[in-house]
Design goal:
Length: 495
């Protein structure tokens, strides 16, 4: 390409880069990823109000017990998931996860619809636990795919944009629930969610087929398609060992744990208020669906206006720290004005920052770990650690309620936790920046932070391009002649 053509192409890409922070060739990948997340979140958020309403049938204390059971089941599922991941290719992992979820929904629908009353009642409690376990696996698999597929720089630039697709799904799902639940009944929602989840699986496969994976940036070569589509490998217990052995992953796990504790505080506050104003299952489902819908409208507005700019301008540390600050201020406001509107504002504000800003930043933390950890360590953190935070939050809120401390005691617990949460966010953000800037060879020798994501080039696509390879302490631009394939260690460019 001549200089004139390159200059023209650069000028044509500037409006898109200014508006969405995208580079040439990335638009299609982002659109497909956003579409996949839209389907996944539509299915999950369509069922979330039904889950909450089913849980409330046996009272708040029953919900706290079910959350504890959920944490145990999640811990048991992680070695099984690690075993499956080690033996399947990435596309097969996606198909196995989403396909199993869809079939499970069909099974629960059959039990709730055709089984006798006693079996149906038990199946509803089992469904509550099942949903809490596998909704995290569904979203975790999607973000693991993106962390494996894109670079750290790409994650910081457009993970927030991809999240817009999820937010649209999170708005559409509860709206669909509020429309369908009164007429079709809660159990029929499971059939709808099953079909939508399969569409998400197809979109994830399309993303792998269309997109070439990590783009060549600044002369740094990407991993080949054969490497990316090969088996992930490793032990079933690798995720647990990686988290326990890496201060960086432990820091990420601590941030996720505190996030879950705070979100659970908001969750139980919401359940108690809904329980007080409605006593019918379908009515509760509809009310909870409307709350979720308007909450995610706030998330969408934040994602479209500020999210990517905040991450780009302030970095991951300060971006992650916004969530503790928002949560603490929200609880202070609810304790002061204590009303249903105050609850909606608390949840809308907290969820907007969590999903609109902190979630994309948190997912970018995993772009600088090795491929196995993106699936196994991430699975442990996003599922068991998160559910363990649910248990801590549920039991703490329950103890305060039994002591009669209610909202005042809850605020007293929230404020010191928020301070530690914010400090941890800043530390993890700095650690990610160091890992992202460090060459893979240097990171590999750094035992304190684990292994950086490394890739081996075995690709014929570099025939017409030079690749930058390491020669001792020097970087050499090496052209590849036609018909030959080289194995060279590629260095990921710093964002």
């Amino acid at each position: 390409m001549s200089r004139t053509e390159m200059s023209t192409a650069s000028r044509r890409s500037r409006p898109w880069q200014a508006m969405f922070n995208l580079r040439r060739g990335e638009g299609g990948q982002v659109l497909i990823a956003a579409l996949c997340l839209f389907f996944v979140l539509t299915a999950l958020m369509l069922l979330r109000p039904a889950r909450d309403a089913l849980g409330l049938e046996h009272g708040i204390e029953s919900v706290r017990s079910l959350i504890a059971v959920t944490a145990v089941v999640t811990l048991a599922m992680n070695p099984l998931f690690g075993w499956v991941v080690g033996r399947l290719k990435r596309s097969q992992v996606i198909g196995a996860t989403y396909g199993f979820l869809a079939l499970s929904l069909l099974g629960f629908w059959g039990l709730m619809t055709f089984a006798p009353g006693g079996v149906a009642a038990v199946s509803r409690r089992v469904f509550y636990v099942w949903f809490n376990v596998f909704n995290l696996f569904a979203t975790m698999v999607f973000w693991a795919l993106l962390a494996d597929h894109f670079t750290s720089d790409q994650g910081k630039r457009f993970f927030a944009l991809v999240s817009v697709g999820g937010t649209l799904g999170a708005i559409f799902g509860p709206w669909l629930t509020s429309v369908l639940a009164p007429s079709l009944g809660t159990s029929s929602l499971l059939l709808v969610a099953s079909g939508v989840l399969l569409l998400g699986m197809l979109a994830a496969w399309l993303l792998q087929w269309v997109a070439p994976g990590r783009a060549i940036e600044d002369g740094v070569a990407p991993p080949s398609r054969s490497d990316e589509r090969g088996r992930i490998g490793g032990s079933a217990w690798a995720g647990i060992r990686s988290v326990l052995g890496s201060p960086y992953l432990c820091g990420v796990a601590g941030y996720v744990l505190l996030t879950a504790v705070m979100v659970t505080f908001v969750y139980f506050t919401r359940l108690q208020m809904v329980e007080a104003i409605a006593d019918d299952l379908d009515m509760r489902t509809a009310i909870l669906g409307k709350i979720d819908m308007w909450t995610h409208v706030a998330v969408l507005m934040l994602q479209l206006t500020l999210a990517s700019r905040i991450i780009k301008r302030f970095g991951l540390g300060l971006t992650l720290a916004l969530l503790p600050v928002t949560t603490a201020l929200g609880f202070l406001g609810l304790a002061t004005y204590g009303s249903f509107l105050g609850l909606v504002l608390l949840e809308a504000g907290t969820r907007a920052v969590q999903r609109g800003i902190a979630q994309p930043a948190r997912e970018a933390l995993f772009t600088v770990v090795d491929r196995e950890d993106k699936y196994k360590a991430k699975a442990l953190i996003d599922t068991f650690v998160y559910r363990a935070g649910d248990v801590v939050g549920a039991q703490t809120e329950g103890a305060l309620s039994r002591l009669g401390m209610a909202m005042g005691g809850l605020v007293g617990a929230v404020l010191p936790l928020a301070l530690g949460w914010m400090a941890l966010a800043l530390w993890v953000g700095r650690a990610q920046a160091r890992r992202s800037a460090r060459p893979s060879a240097d990171t590999a020798s750094d035992g304190s932070c684990g292994q950086h994501d490394r890739s081996i080039l075995r690709s014929p696509h570099a025939v017409s391009r030079g690749v930058r390879v390491s020669s001792g302490s020097r970087m050499i631009d090496t052209p590849q002649p036609p018909g030959k394939r080289f194995d060279v260690q590629a260095r990921e460019s710093a964002p």
